[in-house]
Design goal:
It is a single chain. This protein has about 575 residues and is of the alpha+beta class. About 35% of the residues lie in helices and about 15% in strands. Among the domains are: about 110 residues, no CATH class; about 140 residues, Topoisomerase I, Chain A, domain 4, CATH 1.10.132. Strand 14 and strand 15 form a beta hairpin. The longest helix is centred in the last third of the chain and has 30 residues.
Length: about 575
């Protein structure tokens, strides 16, 4: 019997998360371990990070730990109180007593209050379903691509606890089992009500060198959050959920404790002494996404004019999800947002808002509670849903390291240089894509099929160098010099890729042909395509060139915008 299975009679199971190891962690000294809630807080300074089965599992577990901290500390009230925790030898000293007080509510199999579950949850036919419904690392429809083939038949108590937390945060939509006592159920079915709350987010977490710093960096002072009307308590301090939605949702979430432990689902594990073998799962408390940026700090937000028309109010912001095809640094503007985000041109509301968490880090930096040279990793998390959000197609995670001085509210020049450097990279890679198309045209083809592959190669070449350049920015750096250094690096790397493409061009491309365009005709061959490429690259990276820029007229004006826009198209 594994260490996370208890040898107890059927019907008398107990697995207290306060004392049983269930949280997977990566240790500073190397290796991994599983720890209880008590151990995680007590050993936070010796833990590098959580190390769950999926990145989204880590994100949901961190939010659970933050909800515990907020409630145990009943704060921090303001930045000064936060600074005292940051400097304290034991900032989590209040947690052990708090866990003692609420120990019964953290028992995974408590007969009356099972953790994050609904006691007595059942369908009319008393069906028990496969654990595939909550174990998100079993690919939907592709059971052959998993070590769990043909599915998650039985798992240990520790792993089951992790998937319960994950389901409350990231469960899919689609038709689910109707449960007895839920007025929303019809003919034994619960119809789609959207994914669990965190599944809507482009999750953002500030990660420090240890779990201690990570938890504190993400523990926003209460005066940074809206003035709550009261009643902000986590799920384990509320009455056990019933099968239907809670009756007080109009005034919730009541604060970060409530939000980070939101009960998006009603579920109940089925287990015996050998492990967990089944689950009943249905919908729980819905949470509408529009304009929840005022309470949800761990996501960037985008303005949705379509939702403004639908809801009849303005502005309306929705969570800005992460694009799996784009590295985190390419979306840096949504995280740093160095320019004034209070309003766009003409007094219009801003098109996007950076995460409240980043605003908090900016405040700590601006007010001097964090040294400007402090290095943090902004780690991103997301789930991509498919087939009417009924399956998880992909889980995304990335991280970018930077000094917090880039977030400084009063001195935004360095942060702006970092954002502008991303735009430089986009233009340089666009020039590379145009080169591929020009070489194809010179060879007699009108196909643009190679453009995307060339752009992928370009961003791949710039990925590591940009991350190193960004992490190296520090207080005192001249923004213009820093950006010029980046442009020089980008020009060298993209120029090298261009040279390789030109060298590989076939005889037909070197011979060339007459190419017709809106402004007339041009004899296009590989040599001219090379000249156009260098002209575009020079204008994309004017401060990084080692040779004089070619004249702008080298490229016909009507061919300057041949590239497709790389901005992500998101649903309204």
């Amino acid at each position: 019997m594994s260490s996370d299975q208890l040898s107890v009679p059927m019907g008398l199971l107990s697995f207290p998360l306060t004392d049983q190891p269930w949280l997977p962690v990566q240790l500073l000294v190397g290796g991994e371990s599983e720890l209880s809630l008590r151990q995680v807080f007590a050993q936070a300074s010796r833990i590098r990070r959580l190390a769950g089965e999926l990145p989204t599992q880590d994100f949901s577990l961190i939010r659970l730990l933050l909800a515990i901290l907020y409630d145990a500390l009943d704060g921090p009230a303001d930045a000064e109180a936060w600074a005292e925790l940051w400097e304290a030898d034991d900032p989590f000293a209040a947690v052990p007593g708090y866990l003692n007080e609420h120990q019964d509510r953290f028992d995974l199999f408590h007969p009356c209050t099972p953790f994050f579950q609904t006691p007595g949850l059942r369908t009319a036919a008393d069906e028990v379903f496969s654990l595939n419904r909550i174990v998100a690392d079993v690919p939907n429809g592709s059971p052959f691509f998993t070590a769990r083939f043909p599915g998650a038949g039985r798992i240990g108590f520790a792993e089951a606890a992790r998937w319960v937390v994950h389901a409350q945060a990231y469960d899919t939509s689609g038709i689910k089992s109707g449960v007895v006592g839920d007025p929303r159920a019809k003919n034994g079915k619960a119809y789609p009500q959207g994914v669990a709350w965190a599944g809507n987010l482009g999750g953002v977490l500030a990660e420090g060198p240890t779990l201690r710093e990570t938890l504190l960096l993400n523990l926003l002072a209460l005066d940074q959050l809206p003035a709550w009307a009261g009643g902000d308590v986590p799920a384990w301090r509320r009455p056990p959920t019933g099968p239907g939605a809670a009756g007080d949702l109009a005034n919730r979430p009541a604060g970060p404790r409530d939000l980070y432990s939101w009960q998006s689902r009603r579920l109940l594990l089925h287990a015996d002494a050998g492990g967990v073998h089944g689950v009943v799962l249905s919908y729980g408390d819905p949470l509408a996404a529009p304009n929840l940026h005022i309470v949800e700090p761990m996501s960037a937000w985008r303005r949705s004019q379509a939702q403004e028309k639908k809801l009849g109010r303005s502005p309306v912001y929705l969570p800005r999800e992460h694009d799996p095809a784009r590295a985190a640094w390419r979306g840096l503007e949504a995280l740093i947002a160095p320019r004034d985000q209070g309003a766009a041109s003409g007094g219009e509301p801003a098109p996007m808002l950076r995460p409240g968490l980043v605003q908090w880090l900016a405040r700590l930096t601006t007010e001097g509670f964090l040294a400007r040279g402090t290095l943090v990793r902004l780690r991103t998390f997301g789930a991509l849903y498919g087939t009417q959000q009924s399956v998880i197609d992909e889980v995304t995670s990335d991280a970018i390291a930077m000094a917090v001085v880039l977030l400084h509210e009063a001195d935004r020049e360095l942060g702006q240089a970092a954002v502008d450097a991303v735009a430089d990279a986009d233009l340089a890679v666009r020039a590379l894509g145009d080169l591929v198309v020009d070489l194809a045209r010179a060879a007699g083809s009108e196909s643009e099929a190679g453009r995307d592959a060339a752009r992928d190669a370009g961003f791949g070449a710039l990925d590591g160098p940009y991350r190193l350049w960004l992490a190296g920015l520090s207080e005192g750096d001249d923004p213009q010099h820093a950006r010029a250094a980046w442009q020089h690096t980008a020009r060298r790397l993209i120029g090298r890729l261009g040279e390789e493409l030109i060298a590989a061009a076939g005889d037909a491309a070197w011979q060339g042909r007459v190419f017709s365009h809106a402004k007339g005709q041009t004899w296009l061959n590989a040599a001219l395509a090379d000249r156009w490429f260098r002209s575009r690259l020079s204008r994309a990276l004017p401060h990084g060139q080692s040779t004089p820029a070619l004249p702008a007229q080298a490229v016909p004006a009507d061919l300057e915008r041949t590239s497709v826009d790389d901005s992500r198209k998101v649903p309204a």
